[in-house]
Each structure stands twice: as structure tokens, then as C-alpha cells.
Amino acid sequence: MDIWQGIETERKLLIEILSDLPIARWDEQSLCGRWRVRDVCGHLLGSWMLGPLAHMRYVARWGFRMNRALAEDAIKRGSQPVEVLLELMRKHAESRRMPPAIKPEQMLEDIVIHGQDIRRPLGIAHTFAPEVLRVVLDTLKDQNGVMAVRKRIAGLEVVADDIGWRTGSGQRVAGAAEAVMMAMSGRSASLFELDGPGAVVLGERMHAVMDTVALDR
Description:
Elements lengths: L2 H17 L17 H13 L2 H10 L4 H13 L3 H11 L11 H19 L7 H11 L8 H4 L3 E5 L4 E3 L3 E5 L1 H8 L12 H9 L12
Parallel strand pairs: 1-3
Antiparallel strand pairs: 1-2
Helix pairs in contact: 1-6, 2-4, 2-5, 2-6, 3-4, 6-7, 7-9
């Protein structure tokens, strides 16, 4: 698939639902740690608007504590009025800027997962193209660092049975691709949608607070 076209499509679809969202709902809790809906939008804007040097500067201000820098930047940007956030999101929806050492596939992962961090708690349904989910799952499965996915799924056979995707070996955990993706990325809200003995193991490995970039570990 055309990765950047997929990114732009998902950004614009998210902006479309946010445009109709009552202002009060922008302050509701997302699936990302202590971030509200508006803070997730602030985080997304940071990656759309800033190039590699700008990212390095604000990370440096926090002593290169990446999680802390991302969390504070998201909340600062997210505190802007809703109309400003929407205007900026529309303006930068087609941006191809990326943080340092990040690939386009990870930018797709970012908008897909964070889009669901917003939609799921708000009760807004969204259907992804299978090829988008495959790219995100393939990108996720080998990640450690901030996302810690490889450690989280070690020793498990993870199966997205609706799109014929799987990775790893061991105790099986299976479900729809979107739910598998969210669980792999540390969102326990999707665990009840998964089956198999591996689902219990996966749940035990998740922190009581979401293991996302919103946390300073």
C-alpha cells in the first residue's frame, strides 16, 4: 500500500469525527494514561508539525527523557482551544514531517493507534482497511523501546484471525486485528475481545496504568 496515502486518509477521517465532537467531550479520558482526547490530539500535532531538529530540541529540554517530553508537549499543545486544534490538524494533515529515526510505517501506526485511543472510549466505531492493519501489526511486533511490544508478546503466538495475520510461537492469543493491535500496544481495554491462554499472559504483563508514551517510566 501507499503508506503516506494511508496516513493522510486516517488523519482526515479522525479530523472528520473530531469536527462533529461536542467541545465537552474533548476533555474526556482517552486510553492513553493521563491524556484527555485533546491531549492525544496535541501529541499527534507534535509529530505532524515538527521536524527532526525541533523534536530533538524539546526532548533535550527534558533531559532526553523521551516519555516525559512527549507527555508534557502533548498536554501543552492539547490545552489550546478546540477550534485552534482543529485548524492546526486540518492544516498539517498532509504533512510528511517525522520525528528523528522514525519511518513512515511508524507514522501510520501512530495515527491508527492514537485514533483508536480517542474513538474507543467515546464509543465511535471505525473500520480499517485490512492492509492498514497488516502494516501496523508488522511494524508493532518488533518494537521495544517506548512501546515495549516485543517484550510484551514474547513467548506468545499472536493471531489476528480476521485478516490471516500471526506472529510468534507459544501460548495462543487471538482476536480481530484491531483488538490485537490495541492489546499489543498496551491497551488493556481490548483484552476482553481476545481468546486463548495467551490472553491471560498478555493481561498480566500490562501495567495497571496504560503502558504508552503518555507515561514517564
